[in-house]
Design goal:
Radius of gyration: 10 Å
Order of helices and strands: HEHHE
Distance between the termini: 21 Å
């Protein structure tokens, strides 16, 4: 999923991505938040400000 990784890179700064942006990526690509979370983990990027508990 090259497009997923591209969007994560675009939205992340200093090795972090906002929860809202991660959920937005999932909606844009019509994939699960879990897949975005897994990919973010693989890319060694942290999700910040998660209020829904979707990402761990």
């Amino acid at each position: 999923m090259d497009r997923l990784r591209e969007l994560i890179k675009e939205k992340s700064t200093d090795g972090k991505i906002n929860c809202k942006d991660a959920l937005g990526i999932a909606a844009t690509l019509e994939i699960s938040a879990a897949l975005v979370g897994k990919t973010v983990d693989e890319m060694k990027i942290k999700i910040k400000g998660c209020q829904l508990g979707c990402f761990k």
